[in-house]
Write a structure and sequence with these properties.
Layout lengths: L4 E6 L1 H18 L5 E7 L3 H9 L5 E8 L14 E3 L9 E9 L3 H11 L5 E9 L12 E5 L5 E2 L15 E4 L1 H8 L1
Parallel strand pairs: 2-3, 2-5, 5-6, 6-7
Antiparallel strand pairs: 1-9, 3-4, 8-9
The structure holds guanosine-5'-monophosphate.
Length: 182
């Protein structure tokens, strides 16, 4: 699979160190509070698995799933919830955990839907951020890495359902997606 990657942007060590730092920060910020982490499936599954083990607090966990880009590398702007939270988030300290913020549309929509249930607090944590691509304003409270405007895969992120199991974050060779999107 490595031959499909143009360039490794973040290796395993860099990712592990950054997640350890974010975990410590979250542990300080939520000291004495009941924290509910909500992972956005599927892309956040590896990040979330590592992040929860870097948090030294009792936590609860839930998941939401939203419609993906399908076979494209561009968002349609239409976000659809495929799997909602199992329990209402009313009165809870919620941390929404996402793999990457691109246009910001997915997280803005999810944050709006969750805010309607009146959580005690609602923050956002994303492993990756592409600030250049933002279409809507969004406060991301915990960011792993800001990255350039490249389509990336690995460490949970896919292209066409593949590459999620790469242990690093890398830019896919342009020839791979230009072929499928032609
Ligand atoms: P947004 O709604 O912020 O435009 O997009 C968020 C979602 O788009 C992410 O959860 C992810 O599924 C997908 N996405 C955005 N950029 C990338 C990227 O570079 N690589 C991959 N694999 N997915 C991306």
């Amino acid at each position: 699979m490595r031959e499909m990657i143009e360039q490794v942007l973040l290796d395993e060590k860099q990712i592990a160190e950054r997640i350890s730092d974010i975990g410590k920060k979250i542990s300080q910020d939520y000291q004495g509070k009941d924290l509910l982490l909500i992972g956005v499936l599927k892309g956040a599954f590896i990040f979330l698995a590592d992040l929860v083990r870097a948090i030294d607090l009792p936590i609860a966990l839930d998941f939401v799933a939203v419609s993906s880009y399908g076979f494209s590398t561009e968002t349609t702007g239409v976000v659809r919830i495929i799997k909602d939270v199992d329990y209402p988030v009313t009165g809870k300290h919620v941390l929404l955990v996402e793999d990457i913020v691109d246009s910001g549309l997915t997280l803005r929509y999810l944050a709006q839907v969750l805010a309607e249930q009146k959580p005690a607090s609602l923050r956002i944590c994303a492993l990756l951020d592409k600030p250049e691509r933002r279409k809507v304003s969004l406060d991301v409270d915990y960011v792993g890495f800001s990255i350039p405007n490249e389509f990336v895969v690995g460490y949970g992120l896919d292209y066409n359902g593949q590459y999620r199991n790469l242990p690093f974050v890398g830019a896919l060779k342009h020839s791979i997606y230009s072929k499928s999107e032609a």
